[in-house]
Amino acid sequence: MNAGHILIVDDDTANIRALASVLEDRHEVRFATSGRRALELAAADPPELVLLDVMMPGLDGYAVCRLLKAGPATADVPVIFITSLSSPEEEAFGLETGAVDYVTKPFSPAIVRARVATHLSLCRANRRLRDENDRLESLVRERTRKLAQAQREKMAALRQMVAGVAHEINTPIGVALGSASHLGDRVAAMTVRLADNQLRRAELERFLASAGELAALLSGTIARAGEIVQCFKGVAADHGGLRQTIALKPFLEQVAESLRPQWEPAGHRMAVDCPADLRMVSNPAILSAILEQLVRNALEHAFPAGRHGVMTVGAAAAGPEAVLLTVADDGAGIAEGAAGRILEPFFTTRRGTGSVGLGLNIVDNLVSDRLGGAFTVASRAGGGTLATLHLPARTPPDL
Fold this sequence. Notes:
It is a single chain. By secondary structure, the protein is α/β, with parallel strands linked by helices. Helices cover 52% and strands 16% of the residues. The chain contains ten helices and twelve strands. It is elongated. Residues 5-120 form the Response regulatory domain.
Protein backbone atom coordinates (compact mmCIF):
# COMPACT_ATOMS: atom_id res chain seq x y z
CA MET A 1 0.00 0.00 0.00
CA ASN A 2 1.47 3.36 -1.09
CA ALA A 3 1.58 6.23 1.39
CA GLY A 4 0.32 8.78 -1.16
CA HIS A 5 0.07 9.75 -4.78
CA ILE A 6 2.37 11.26 -7.40
CA LEU A 7 1.40 14.61 -8.90
CA ILE A 8 2.50 15.21 -12.50
CA VAL A 9 2.52 18.88 -13.52
CA ASP A 10 2.93 19.76 -17.22
CA ASP A 11 1.05 22.02 -19.62
CA ASP A 12 1.47 19.37 -22.36
CA THR A 13 -1.03 16.52 -21.91
CA ALA A 14 1.08 14.26 -24.13
CA ASN A 15 3.93 14.51 -21.63
CA ILE A 16 1.49 13.79 -18.79
CA ARG A 17 0.22 10.64 -20.57
CA ALA A 18 3.78 9.48 -21.24
CA LEU A 19 4.82 9.89 -17.61
CA ALA A 20 1.58 8.34 -16.35
CA SER A 21 2.10 5.26 -18.52
CA VAL A 22 5.53 4.78 -16.94
CA LEU A 23 4.33 5.10 -13.33
CA GLU A 24 0.66 4.18 -13.02
CA ASP A 25 1.29 0.43 -12.76
CA ARG A 26 3.08 1.03 -9.41
CA HIS A 27 1.72 4.34 -8.15
CA GLU A 28 -1.44 6.37 -7.93
CA VAL A 29 -1.02 9.21 -10.40
CA ARG A 30 -2.76 12.60 -10.51
CA PHE A 31 -2.03 15.54 -12.78
CA ALA A 32 -2.33 19.28 -13.29
CA THR A 33 -1.81 21.28 -16.48
CA SER A 34 -0.83 24.56 -14.80
CA GLY A 35 1.26 25.72 -11.91
CA ARG A 36 -1.72 27.37 -10.19
CA ARG A 37 -3.81 24.19 -10.38
CA ALA A 38 -0.88 22.14 -9.10
CA LEU A 39 -0.63 24.34 -6.01
CA GLU A 40 -4.37 24.03 -5.36
CA LEU A 41 -4.25 20.22 -5.59
CA ALA A 42 -1.12 19.99 -3.44
CA ALA A 43 -2.63 22.21 -0.74
CA ALA A 44 -5.86 20.19 -0.65
CA ASP A 45 -4.17 16.77 -0.61
CA PRO A 46 -0.35 16.84 -0.47
CA PRO A 47 1.24 14.31 -2.84
CA GLU A 48 4.09 12.03 -1.93
CA LEU A 49 6.20 13.27 -4.87
CA VAL A 50 5.86 15.89 -7.63
CA LEU A 51 7.11 15.55 -11.24
CA LEU A 52 7.27 19.14 -12.43
CA ASP A 53 7.82 20.73 -15.82
CA VAL A 54 9.75 24.01 -15.86
CA MET A 55 8.44 25.85 -18.89
CA MET A 56 4.74 26.52 -18.31
CA PRO A 57 2.59 29.60 -18.92
CA GLY A 58 1.74 31.68 -15.88
CA LEU A 59 3.66 30.21 -12.95
CA ASP A 60 6.68 28.35 -14.26
CA GLY A 61 8.11 25.26 -12.58
CA TYR A 62 10.71 27.16 -10.58
CA ALA A 63 8.05 29.40 -9.02
CA VAL A 64 5.82 26.42 -8.28
CA CYS A 65 8.71 24.61 -6.59
CA ARG A 66 9.53 27.61 -4.42
CA LEU A 67 5.89 27.96 -3.36
CA LEU A 68 5.63 24.25 -2.57
CA LYS A 69 8.74 24.49 -0.38
CA ALA A 70 7.31 27.54 1.37
CA GLY A 71 4.08 25.78 2.37
CA PRO A 72 4.09 23.88 5.72
CA ALA A 73 2.05 21.00 4.31
CA THR A 74 4.22 20.56 1.19
CA ALA A 75 7.67 21.67 2.31
CA ASP A 76 8.91 18.09 2.64
CA VAL A 77 7.38 16.78 -0.60
CA PRO A 78 10.23 15.85 -2.99
CA VAL A 79 10.12 17.62 -6.37
CA ILE A 80 11.76 16.22 -9.53
CA PHE A 81 12.03 18.57 -12.49
CA ILE A 82 11.36 16.94 -15.87
CA THR A 83 12.20 19.49 -18.56
CA SER A 84 13.77 20.04 -21.94
CA LEU A 85 16.11 22.60 -20.41
CA SER A 86 19.37 20.68 -20.25
CA SER A 87 22.10 23.21 -19.50
CA PRO A 88 24.10 22.77 -16.31
CA GLU A 89 23.09 26.26 -15.24
CA GLU A 90 19.39 25.43 -15.53
CA GLU A 91 19.88 22.18 -13.62
CA ALA A 92 21.83 23.95 -10.86
CA PHE A 93 19.14 26.65 -10.63
CA GLY A 94 16.43 23.99 -10.38
CA LEU A 95 18.20 22.22 -7.54
CA GLU A 96 18.75 25.56 -5.79
CA THR A 97 15.00 26.20 -5.78
CA GLY A 98 14.51 23.05 -3.70
CA ALA A 99 14.17 20.16 -6.16
CA VAL A 100 15.75 16.84 -5.27
CA ASP A 101 16.49 15.80 -8.88
CA TYR A 102 16.52 16.99 -12.46
CA VAL A 103 15.61 14.82 -15.47
CA THR A 104 15.86 16.11 -19.03
CA LYS A 105 13.48 15.38 -21.90
CA PRO A 106 13.23 13.17 -23.78
CA PHE A 107 13.33 11.01 -20.66
CA SER A 108 14.14 7.33 -20.29
CA PRO A 109 11.24 5.43 -18.66
CA ALA A 110 13.71 3.29 -16.71
CA ILE A 111 15.51 6.39 -15.42
CA VAL A 112 12.24 8.01 -14.37
CA ARG A 113 11.09 4.88 -12.53
CA ALA A 114 14.47 4.55 -10.79
CA ARG A 115 14.63 8.21 -9.77
CA VAL A 116 11.05 8.14 -8.49
CA ALA A 117 11.66 4.92 -6.54
CA THR A 118 14.86 6.30 -5.02
CA HIS A 119 13.34 9.57 -3.85
CA LEU A 120 10.16 7.94 -2.59
CA SER A 121 12.28 5.54 -0.57
CA LEU A 122 14.36 8.41 0.85
CA CYS A 123 11.25 10.44 1.61
CA ARG A 124 9.57 7.53 3.41
CA ALA A 125 12.73 6.78 5.36
CA ASN A 126 12.96 10.44 6.41
CA ARG A 127 9.30 10.39 7.40
CA ARG A 128 9.83 7.29 9.51
CA LEU A 129 12.87 8.92 11.07
CA ARG A 130 10.91 12.07 11.89
CA ASP A 131 8.06 10.02 13.33
CA GLU A 132 10.51 8.06 15.45
CA ASN A 133 12.19 11.28 16.58
CA ASP A 134 8.78 12.72 17.46
CA ARG A 135 7.97 9.55 19.40
CA LEU A 136 11.28 9.64 21.26
CA GLU A 137 10.88 13.33 22.03
CA SER A 138 7.40 12.61 23.34
CA LEU A 139 8.80 9.82 25.50
CA VAL A 140 11.54 12.13 26.78
CA ARG A 141 8.99 14.82 27.61
CA GLU A 142 6.79 12.31 29.40
CA ARG A 143 9.76 10.83 31.22
CA THR A 144 10.93 14.31 32.21
CA ARG A 145 7.44 15.12 33.46
CA LYS A 146 7.32 11.92 35.50
CA LEU A 147 10.79 12.54 36.94
CA ALA A 148 9.78 16.06 37.91
CA GLN A 149 6.60 14.72 39.49
CA ALA A 150 8.56 12.03 41.32
CA GLN A 151 11.00 14.67 42.55
CA ARG A 152 8.12 16.79 43.83
CA GLU A 153 6.64 13.77 45.57
CA LYS A 154 10.01 12.90 47.11
CA MET A 155 10.41 16.44 48.39
CA ALA A 156 6.90 16.34 49.83
CA ALA A 157 7.70 13.02 51.50
CA LEU A 158 10.97 14.46 52.81
CA ARG A 159 9.13 17.46 54.26
CA GLN A 160 6.66 15.08 55.89
CA MET A 161 9.51 12.97 57.24
CA VAL A 162 11.32 16.01 58.63
CA ALA A 163 8.13 17.23 60.27
CA GLY A 164 7.59 13.76 61.73
CA VAL A 165 11.14 13.59 63.03
CA ALA A 166 10.76 16.98 64.67
CA HIS A 167 7.44 16.01 66.23
CA GLU A 168 8.53 12.58 67.47
CA ILE A 169 11.84 13.67 68.95
CA ASN A 170 10.54 16.97 70.32
CA THR A 171 8.25 15.22 72.80
CA PRO A 172 10.88 13.21 74.74
CA ILE A 173 13.39 16.06 74.46
CA GLY A 174 10.81 18.49 75.86
CA VAL A 175 10.05 16.14 78.75
CA ALA A 176 13.77 15.65 79.41
CA LEU A 177 14.46 19.40 79.37
CA GLY A 178 11.55 20.10 81.68
CA SER A 179 12.67 17.38 84.09
CA ALA A 180 16.28 18.57 84.03
CA SER A 181 15.21 22.18 84.61
CA HIS A 182 12.97 21.19 87.52
CA LEU A 183 15.73 19.06 89.03
CA GLY A 184 18.20 21.94 88.67
CA ASP A 185 15.82 24.33 90.45
CA ARG A 186 15.34 21.84 93.28
CA VAL A 187 19.09 21.30 93.63
CA ALA A 188 19.68 25.07 93.75
CA ALA A 189 17.02 25.49 96.43
CA MET A 190 18.42 22.62 98.50
CA THR A 191 21.93 24.05 98.17
CA VAL A 192 20.75 27.38 99.62
CA ARG A 193 18.97 25.69 102.51
CA LEU A 194 22.00 23.53 103.20
CA ALA A 195 24.27 26.62 103.24
CA ASP A 196 21.89 28.29 105.72
CA ASN A 197 21.83 25.18 107.93
CA GLN A 198 18.07 24.97 107.41
CA LEU A 199 17.93 21.60 105.66
CA ARG A 200 16.00 18.95 107.57
CA ARG A 201 16.21 15.21 107.20
CA ALA A 202 12.60 14.80 106.06
CA GLU A 203 13.07 17.52 103.49
CA LEU A 204 16.22 15.84 102.21
CA GLU A 205 14.46 12.51 101.98
CA ARG A 206 11.62 14.07 99.95
CA PHE A 207 14.16 15.68 97.67
CA LEU A 208 16.03 12.43 97.14
CA ALA A 209 12.81 10.59 96.32
CA SER A 210 11.77 13.32 93.89
CA ALA A 211 15.25 13.38 92.34
CA GLY A 212 15.13 9.63 91.83
CA GLU A 213 11.78 9.91 90.04
CA LEU A 214 13.08 12.71 87.84
CA ALA A 215 16.23 10.74 87.05
CA ALA A 216 14.11 7.73 86.03
CA LEU A 217 11.93 9.98 83.87
CA LEU A 218 15.00 11.50 82.27
CA SER A 219 16.47 8.08 81.59
CA GLY A 220 13.23 6.84 80.09
CA THR A 221 12.68 9.82 77.81
CA ILE A 222 16.29 9.79 76.58
CA ALA A 223 15.99 6.06 75.90
CA ARG A 224 12.76 6.79 74.01
CA ALA A 225 14.53 9.38 71.87
CA GLY A 226 17.27 6.84 71.17
CA GLU A 227 14.68 4.29 70.03
CA ILE A 228 13.12 6.85 67.71
CA VAL A 229 16.52 7.66 66.19
CA GLN A 230 17.12 3.93 65.63
CA CYS A 231 13.81 3.73 63.79
CA PHE A 232 14.78 6.67 61.60
CA LYS A 233 18.10 5.00 60.84
CA GLY A 234 16.16 1.96 59.66
CA VAL A 235 14.51 4.05 56.95
CA ALA A 236 17.86 4.81 55.30
CA ALA A 237 19.77 1.68 56.31
CA ASP A 238 21.73 -0.01 53.54
CA HIS A 239 21.37 -3.51 55.06
CA GLY A 240 24.33 -4.58 52.91
CA GLY A 241 24.65 -7.99 51.34
CA LEU A 242 24.68 -9.25 47.77
CA ARG A 243 22.14 -11.08 45.67
CA GLN A 244 22.22 -14.81 46.21
CA THR A 245 20.21 -17.85 45.22
CA ILE A 246 18.02 -18.54 48.24
CA ALA A 247 16.36 -21.86 49.02
CA LEU A 248 13.29 -20.33 50.61
CA LYS A 249 12.03 -23.11 52.88
CA PRO A 250 15.25 -23.46 54.97
CA PHE A 251 15.70 -19.67 54.81
CA LEU A 252 12.24 -19.04 56.29
CA GLU A 253 12.76 -21.75 58.89
CA GLN A 254 16.01 -20.07 59.93
CA VAL A 255 14.28 -16.67 60.21
CA ALA A 256 11.48 -18.18 62.31
CA GLU A 257 13.99 -19.89 64.60
CA SER A 258 16.02 -16.70 65.03
CA LEU A 259 12.85 -14.94 66.19
CA ARG A 260 11.90 -17.65 68.70
CA PRO A 261 13.04 -15.57 71.72
CA GLN A 262 10.45 -12.97 70.70
CA TRP A 263 7.37 -15.12 70.03
CA GLU A 264 7.84 -18.21 72.21
CA PRO A 265 7.96 -16.57 75.70
CA ALA A 266 4.58 -14.92 74.98
CA GLY A 267 3.04 -18.33 74.21
CA HIS A 268 2.71 -17.83 70.46
CA ARG A 269 3.46 -20.38 67.75
CA MET A 270 5.12 -19.85 64.39
CA ALA A 271 4.78 -22.07 61.31
CA VAL A 272 6.51 -22.10 57.92
CA ASP A 273 4.53 -22.88 54.76
CA CYS A 274 6.77 -23.14 51.70
CA PRO A 275 7.43 -25.68 48.91
CA ALA A 276 10.69 -27.50 49.45
CA ASP A 277 12.06 -26.68 45.99
CA LEU A 278 11.13 -22.99 45.77
CA ARG A 279 14.07 -20.66 45.15
CA MET A 280 14.67 -17.02 44.30
CA VAL A 281 17.65 -14.75 43.65
CA SER A 282 17.57 -11.84 46.07
CA ASN A 283 19.29 -10.11 48.96
CA PRO A 284 18.93 -12.35 52.04
CA ALA A 285 19.90 -9.57 54.47
CA ILE A 286 17.08 -7.34 53.25
CA LEU A 287 14.59 -10.21 53.21
CA SER A 288 15.52 -11.12 56.77
CA ALA A 289 15.15 -7.51 57.93
CA ILE A 290 11.71 -7.29 56.31
CA LEU A 291 10.42 -10.57 57.75
CA GLU A 292 11.74 -9.74 61.22
CA GLN A 293 10.00 -6.36 61.12
CA LEU A 294 6.71 -7.95 60.03
CA VAL A 295 6.86 -10.52 62.82
CA ARG A 296 7.66 -7.83 65.40
CA ASN A 297 4.77 -5.77 64.07
CA ALA A 298 2.41 -8.73 64.47
CA LEU A 299 3.63 -9.38 68.01
CA GLU A 300 3.10 -5.71 68.89
CA HIS A 301 -0.31 -5.18 67.31
CA ALA A 302 -2.07 -8.48 66.61
CA PHE A 303 -2.42 -10.03 70.06
CA PRO A 304 -3.93 -8.32 73.11
CA ALA A 305 -2.18 -8.99 76.42
CA GLY A 306 -2.56 -12.59 77.48
CA ARG A 307 -3.85 -13.86 74.13
CA HIS A 308 -1.85 -16.56 72.38
CA GLY A 309 -1.79 -16.78 68.60
CA VAL A 310 -0.28 -18.40 65.52
CA MET A 311 1.90 -16.67 62.95
CA THR A 312 2.73 -18.25 59.59
CA VAL A 313 5.60 -17.27 57.33
CA GLY A 314 4.96 -18.54 53.82
CA ALA A 315 6.20 -18.46 50.23
CA ALA A 316 4.70 -19.52 46.90
CA ALA A 317 5.51 -19.13 43.22
CA ALA A 318 3.47 -16.49 41.39
CA GLY A 319 4.22 -17.55 37.83
CA PRO A 320 7.69 -18.18 36.41
CA GLU A 321 9.08 -14.76 37.29
CA ALA A 322 7.58 -13.82 40.66
CA VAL A 323 7.38 -15.04 44.25
CA LEU A 324 4.89 -14.25 47.00
CA LEU A 325 6.20 -14.05 50.56
CA THR A 326 3.58 -13.76 53.29
CA VAL A 327 3.42 -13.20 57.02
CA ALA A 328 -0.01 -14.05 58.45
CA ASP A 329 -1.43 -14.04 61.96
CA ASP A 330 -4.76 -15.01 63.53
CA GLY A 331 -4.85 -11.94 65.75
CA ALA A 332 -7.08 -8.91 66.06
CA GLY A 333 -6.78 -7.71 62.47
CA ILE A 334 -6.42 -4.09 61.35
CA ALA A 335 -8.26 -1.49 63.41
CA GLU A 336 -11.26 0.13 61.78
CA GLY A 337 -10.25 3.24 59.84
CA ALA A 338 -6.55 2.34 59.84
CA ALA A 339 -6.39 0.15 56.72
CA GLY A 340 -5.69 3.00 54.32
CA ARG A 341 -3.01 4.61 56.48
CA ILE A 342 -0.89 1.84 57.95
CA LEU A 343 1.93 2.35 55.41
CA GLU A 344 2.17 6.08 56.09
CA PRO A 345 5.25 7.17 58.05
CA PHE A 346 4.53 7.83 61.75
CA PHE A 347 0.99 6.42 61.63
CA THR A 348 0.31 4.12 64.57
CA THR A 349 -2.68 3.06 66.63
CA ARG A 350 -0.48 2.50 69.70
CA ARG A 351 1.42 5.74 70.17
CA GLY A 352 0.64 5.65 73.88
CA THR A 353 2.64 2.43 74.24
CA GLY A 354 5.72 3.84 72.54
CA SER A 355 5.06 2.83 68.91
CA VAL A 356 6.69 5.24 66.46
CA GLY A 357 4.75 4.12 63.38
CA LEU A 358 7.69 3.56 61.04
CA GLY A 359 7.93 -0.25 60.89
CA LEU A 360 5.59 -0.92 57.97
CA ASN A 361 6.75 2.21 56.16
CA ILE A 362 10.33 0.91 56.34
CA VAL A 363 9.15 -2.44 54.96
CA ASP A 364 7.26 -0.73 52.12
CA ASN A 365 10.34 1.27 51.13
CA LEU A 366 12.66 -1.73 51.26
CA VAL A 367 10.32 -3.87 49.17
CA SER A 368 9.87 -1.27 46.43
CA ASP A 369 13.26 0.46 46.37
CA ARG A 370 15.62 -2.42 47.17
CA LEU A 371 13.77 -5.52 45.90
CA GLY A 372 11.68 -4.12 43.04
CA GLY A 373 8.44 -5.51 44.45
CA ALA A 374 5.13 -4.46 45.96
CA PHE A 375 3.89 -4.67 49.56
CA THR A 376 0.32 -4.91 50.85
CA VAL A 377 -1.25 -5.46 54.27
CA ALA A 378 -4.89 -6.44 54.76
CA SER A 379 -7.18 -8.05 57.30
CA ARG A 380 -7.89 -11.73 56.58
CA ALA A 381 -11.46 -12.88 55.99
CA GLY A 382 -11.25 -15.40 58.81
CA GLY A 383 -9.61 -12.97 61.23
CA GLY A 384 -6.09 -11.70 61.65
CA THR A 385 -3.80 -9.90 59.23
CA LEU A 386 -1.99 -10.91 56.04
CA ALA A 387 1.14 -9.05 54.89
CA THR A 388 2.13 -9.90 51.30
CA LEU A 389 5.37 -9.22 49.44
CA HIS A 390 5.02 -9.59 45.65
CA LEU A 391 8.64 -9.92 44.54
CA PRO A 392 10.49 -10.69 41.31
CA ALA A 393 12.00 -14.17 41.37
CA ARG A 394 15.27 -12.47 40.45
CA THR A 395 15.86 -9.09 42.05
CA PRO A 396 17.03 -6.64 39.36
CA PRO A 397 20.80 -6.16 39.59
CA ASP A 398 20.55 -2.36 39.53
CA LEU A 399 18.64 -2.24 42.84
